[in-house]
Amino acid sequence: MSRERGSVTAELAIAMPAVILLLACCLAGLQAGAMHMRLQDAAAQAARAAARSHSPDTTAALVAGELAPAASAAVRQHGMLLCVELSAPARIVGDLGLFAVTAGSCALSGGR
């Protein structure tokens, strides 16, 4: 029994970094999902505002900049639809952006 003394502590010390890494990955996934939802809402509002505006590019960039400051906006016209696509780096730990989160939305342009 004296040879096994402290083995639980050693096993915990070995397993703890893996558990912490798994927890960090789960939290990063949740954060990326929440960011995608924010970008989707911002893209929808930017598309609606740009469709009502005379200068869609400027309006979409302004609305997207207010709602998602780190996002870049791309505006495209598809027939009667005006589409806005927002892309932003996913902030995992501090400013470490490993991948980009993208969301888009379209709105019927106002009779142009």
Count the beta strands: 3
Largest sheet report? 3 strands, antiparallel
What is the quaternary state of this protein? single chain
The average pLDDT value, as a whole number, equals 82
What do these coordinates show?
This protein has two helices and three strands. It has about 110 residues and is of the alpha+beta class. The chain has one domain (about 1-110). A three-stranded antiparallel sheet has the order 1-2-3. α1 (about 5-50) packs antiparallel against α2 (about 55-65). The protein is rod-shaped and about 80 Å long. The chain starts with 6 loop residues before the first helix and ends with a strand.
What secondary-structure arrangement, pairings included, does this model have?
Layout: H1 7-52, H2 56-67, E1 72-78, E2 81-93, E3 96-108
Helix pairs in contact: 1-2
